[in-house]
Amino acid sequence: MKNSMKLRKLALATFIFMLMILAISHYNGKGGQKNDSTPHINPPEDLGGKGEIGMQLYPTGSRLPDCSHACGPCFPCKRVMVIFKCSLAESCPIVYSSELPHTVVNSFEQFILLMDDDGQIETSLAEIQSFFDSAPPLKDREGIITKVQDFIHKNSSSSGIGKAARVVCVTSGGTTVPLEQRCVRYIDNFSSGRRGAASTEYFLEAGYSVIFLYRSGTCQPYCSTLPDDPFLNCFDASDDTAIQVHPSFAKEVKRAIKENRAAVLGGRLLKLSFTTIFEYLQMLQLIATSMNTLGPSAMFYLAAAVSDFYVPWETMNVHKIQSGSGPLDISLAQVPKMISALRREWAPLTFCISFKLETDSKILLEKARRALKKNKVHLVVANELSTRKEEVIVVAENEEIVVRRNQSKAEAEVERPLVALLVDRHSAYIKHSGS
Ligand SMILES: *[C@@H]1O[C@H](CO)[C@@H](O)[C@H](O)[C@H]1NC(C)=O
Ligand SMILES: *[C@@H]1O[C@H](CO)[C@@H](O)[C@H](O)[C@H]1NC(C)=O
Ligand SMILES: *[C@@H]1O[C@H](CO)[C@@H](O)[C@H](O)[C@H]1NC(C)=O
Ligand SMILES: *[C@@H]1O[C@H](CO)[C@@H](O)[C@H](O)[C@H]1NC(C)=O
């Protein structure tokens, strides 16, 4: 009896020891050249994220083998097998020094879920709730809910004969982060909204109904061929009564007006605009919970550039920050990671595509793969800033597909083959879900 206990303990100790070795070799293998700030949180490949290991792992060390200083409160430290970044100011690893609810995890998979791209702790649903609770209330919330539900209802009931109509929510443009409650200044996130607008056209062409959730003032579907200030540039007021389209823009203006009107009046395009991060996330949540009723025939195409940092509403200056008071010192909190909430809570049945943009192609694919795993989205579209109009890489669980625009046509956009591929994958997903 006693012996078998001992044996079991020994086995457990060996197992943990092996985990540590795996972890160290993994770290050295991948990040060995850079000994510094690049955390590598992938679980050892051999475990393949297969879930339950049958014991509790206590994340404590900043990086093996350097977790000795954490041994105080987390005794016995032998149970530690964690690699992640510890911020410089921290004497004790992040999990222990903060009081997040996730100090205990049961598996590697779960552990990965708790961290974001940079190895920091993932936000819990409670934190997401508190983000929403403290956000300024969405203006005309009821009106937006009604619009979304009417739109979805019309398009799910009109399909008839067992063939569910497809609806995609395309998010587009960047969010702002206000610095004052009565906002004069804000931090913005770069994005023209061109990808979202172009993709919307192709989704409509493919027979989808589209909820276009866009940053106010960014690109609109069917307008990409118009000049910057179409109202002033495309029209001629020749005499007192008549306003005419300038002949050189006649074709484009006609197309924009016709296609847009057909889509909106036909009930196939619903445009909703946001400006701040608070508006965006609240709208996304309510759209997601409505779209979940459509099941697998709904899709999310999350092309918006969402800020990672924000000033919590309650800590924000009410009035305009005065410039006379010297350098500005603002503390930005991390925006809770909403994609995994969307996948896990709001709309688990829908087909979900997220985007990853980087300026460094070397880390792009790795980050896209990690986002795919961590958020459990179905596909991640990886794009590099400098080449994003030419090609993107669609990252799936078992494959990576390079999608290029047709280079023999000057006006061809990469969104055309991209949307075609996604529609294909969505069909397969619907078929698979139904069987
Ligand atoms: C790690 O990098 C720092 C500089 O960033 C250097 O001073 C130090 O010697 C390096 N340590 C190892 C073990 O390579
Ligand atoms: C969406 O609803 C409108 C209005 O009822 C309808 O004309 C349109 O065909 C629907 N679209 C789809 C894809 O079912
Ligand atoms: C802007 O959005 C991108 C994602 O599209 C994100 O990686 C980046 O950190 C954001 N910028 C800020 C300041 O949060
Ligand atoms: C690209 O465009 C050319 C010219 O219009 C066309 O002939 C060709 O079939 C296109 N290629 C693809 C892959 O669509």
From TrEMBL:
Keywords: Coenzyme A biosynthesis, Signal. GO terms for molecular function: phosphopantothenate--cysteine ligase activity. InterPro entries: CoaB-like_sf, DNA/pantothenate-metab_flavo_C. Residues 285-412 form the DNA/pantothenate metabolism flavoprotein C-terminal domain. Pathway: Cofactor biosynthesis; coenzyme A biosynthesis; CoA from (R)-pantothenate: step 2/5. Pfam families: DFP, EPF. GO terms for biological process: coenzyme A biosynthetic process. Gene3D superfamilies: CoaB-like. It comes from the Eukaryota. Residues 1-25 form the signal peptide. Belongs to the PPC synthetase family. This is OLC1v1017519C2.
